[in-house]
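Q: For a teaching session next week I want to show students how multiple molecules come together into a single three-dimensional assembly. I've collected the sequence lines for a complex. Could you give me the predicted structure tokens for the whole thing so I can convert them for display?
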Amino acid sequence: MKTETTLTGITLKEKLIRAFEEEFLPGLADEKPFMKEIRQQSIETFQSLGFPHQKMEDWRSTSLQKTLSRQYIQEFTSPSPKEDVSKIFKCDIHHLDTHLLTLLNGWHVDTGIELTVLPDGMIFGSFNAARKQYPELFEKYYAKQAPYLSNGLIALNTAFAHDGIFIYVPDGVVATRTIQIVNIINQAENLFIQPRNLVILGKNASLQLVHCDHSVQHKASFVNSVTEIFLGENSFVDHYKLQNKDNDATVITNSFFHQSANSRLISNVITFNGGLIRNNLSTTLAGQGADAQLFGLYLADKDQHVDNNIMVDHQSADCTSNQLYKGILDDQAMAVFNGHIKVRRDSQRTVASQNNKNILLSDKATIHTQPHLEIFADDVKCSHGATVGQLDPEAMFYMRSRGIREDTSRMLMMYAFAADVINHIQIPPVRHQIDEMVYRRLKGELSNCDQCIIDCNATRPQIFEIDMSKI
Amino acid sequence: MLKISNLHVSINNKEIIKGLNLEVKAGEVHAIMGPNGTGKSTLASVIAGREIYEITSGTIFYKGKDIQTMSIEERASEGIFLGFQYPVEIPGVSMTNFMKTAVNEQRKYRGQDPLNSTDFLALMEEKKKLVEIQSNLTNRSVNEGFSGGEKKKNEIFQMAMLDPALAILDETDSGLDIDALRVVANGVVKLRRPDNAFIIITHYQRLLDYIVPDFVHVLFEGRIVKSGRKELAMELEERGYEWLKNGNF
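A: Of course. Below is the structure for the complete assembly, covering every listed component.
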């Protein structure tokens, strides 16, 4: 059975609230009381806060107006019958042996197994199945990090949270195979989806996670996803997010990390393409000696908009954090970088740094970059910097004096600029793949149709075209 | 090989080179000496094609062709090499990739097939040995984090790789200790052939102890005020540039 809500006429907010009461809740009769309670509080929060707007400090440079004025459908049950995703999409990272988890229109796609349990106790698969099978883990971790009582978008996702990915890595388990999550949207109509992911690592556990966002049909889509990742003591998470969406897609991702003592996080957010992308990323350094290394790269052109909003909350002493985000913008593209560092009163010996570097290739491209530092401890080393520039003319002369053509020199320089981020990718096949994708993106050869094997001759691939003569 | 006639060069409407004449033939090594700010580096950059300088009058002929309409990369591919006084750091571009791109773009310009990886690596190994450069320098980003001496040795290495017809070394010896100086000088001596030429810009005579020039020119206030054989370098070392400033041309 496929239940669909067509959201027309009245505002999206009103439609959503109505759909929650009338269509969504009745399908969850068997849900645990604590989950119901969270949903109820969430819908109430959304009712009072609504969607973010530009009067809010963190949303000043990003408008959802166009996205919210469109009409979308929602799917409240898993698409049935199960589609063979491999027929429409193939993600080919060469020489990388992964556990592949696919979300189609926000629903976990399984080939008969909803949740895989490995002999070492590691569990991964459907969020929807996990919330029924592992209520004790959900009661302990679910919605503990995402602020569903104070953030409208988080509240909206939490009210409707139905499916996504669940991963559990028990104490002492080092996941030897990378987990790859592929988010695919394939719908003939405009679609609004809200995936919800929960990842839990025990003490001394380790996980590499590659998270890819793709769209297949060239219809407008609106994604509002929430991911909570808990890092136990001395655990390690290596997280990659790759975004290659079409120009009519709106993607809001909300990632919340909670880091216990001596845990280590490496995060890479690579945005190749997308209409409106907003990545909220927050990590709470809750235990002494935790470390967060946050990297990002965004390549935008035409009317694309990429907004990275980061919060690093130093709640404990002796923690370290680093943010390095870099962007190349062409045409009328706009990027936003808001990097927050908060150092609480007792978080002595904190070392935190932040850097945002941008290259603008056109006079009409815009970057809004702003550091937000709140420091309440006294023994702290904090640094921040932002640069906006063009390619170094000295380096250009140097390269050309060796016989390298002007356009090739520019390519090499832009590529080198991006490499600063790419070189931090720890998984060699992923690094190699991203490297190549960046190269092709900069050369104008990468399209949002890449890796998609569906035959849609209706739409022309949208490619990144850097006009070299403009620089 | 190179013939510069009555060259006048300005930057931001300020004239730096004021009527310079210089002729360099194949097989020759020319040294250009002179105090700071007299136009030595400007001359080197102008021959290489740097666009921030304006040639207001005069001509530069290289291998019989007027090079003023040629781009920087065309001049390089025609065999002009500039060894930089301050080599530029390019983070993220590996030396190997940089050199491979340069060698193959020059080959393409000359209508040759690109070198494959094996041949290219073999060429690198050969040239590294020739100029006594440590192998680890080529694994790093271009000049990034190199010491002053490493940067200058790297210029000589690049020169060896590109095998230019005319190499202009702009104060490649400045700031070098005696060992690095010897490496730089040996590179030039080994690469010197009857069919190529060098212009060595330097403040000091000491480099010329290793590389014996055929001609020494003194550049002062935008013009060559004195030319001679290698003995002129020694005379300059002895008397200092003050001697020139007092009008003893």
